[in-house]
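Practice problem 4.
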């Protein structure tokens, strides 16, 4: 079973823990790490979006943050973000043809800020409540999506999107996307500073 730290409004652990299932059943505040993979293409920023697997308990089949996941109880946001990035999006080894991870180092993840997400929606016939403090990071190292081996239980596919078009689609509630608008705003502010 996956356990999460219960956190205060600033994302600091309170000393209590909760199961992931109970956190989403009751809407208990917890932490996540969101990593946005970004590149420049023809003077524009693009973001790598993951299409969530249809079996996901929330937003199945929608385009979302490049890599995101819960921060396990006792873990720190940066370490959790690095682990999530390597777990969900693995790169195919050039010579060995065995899956290897995106080799992100702590200095490769640039902290952009925190956001608070809070919603309740029905998926698969059950109410899913999310009350999270997300630590948002930007990863700007080269990524060749043709060599990625995706964790199929989590990610159906990945695709590059124009950052500004994605931001407008999410603001306009385009049903193809589920990425949090505040997360995109933090990324935009960070990149255009």
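Answer key:
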């Amino acid at each position: 079973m996956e356990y999460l730290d219960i956190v205060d409004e600033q994302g600091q652990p309170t000393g209590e823990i909760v199961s992931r299932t109970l956190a989403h059943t009751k809407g208990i505040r917890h932490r996540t790490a969101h990593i946005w993979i970004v590149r420049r293409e023809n003077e524009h920023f693009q973001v790598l979006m993951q299409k969530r697997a249809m079996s996901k308990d929330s937003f199945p089949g929608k385009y979302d943050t490049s890599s995101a996941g819960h921060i396990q109880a006792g873990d720190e946001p940066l370490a959790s973000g690095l682990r999530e990035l390597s777990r969900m999006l693995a790169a195919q080894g050039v010579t060995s043809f065995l899956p290897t991870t995106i080799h992100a180092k702590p200095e490769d993840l640039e902290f952009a800020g925190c956001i608070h997400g809070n919603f309740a929606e029905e998926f698969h016939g059950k109410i899913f409540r999310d009350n999270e403090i997300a630590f948002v990071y930007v990863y700007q190292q080269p990524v060749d999506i043709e060599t990625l081996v995706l964790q199929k239980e989590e990610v159906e596919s990945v695709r590059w999107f124009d950052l500004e078009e994605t931001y407008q689609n999410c603001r306009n509630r385009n049903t193809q996307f589920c990425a949090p608008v505040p997360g995109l705003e933090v990324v935009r502010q960070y990149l255009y500073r």
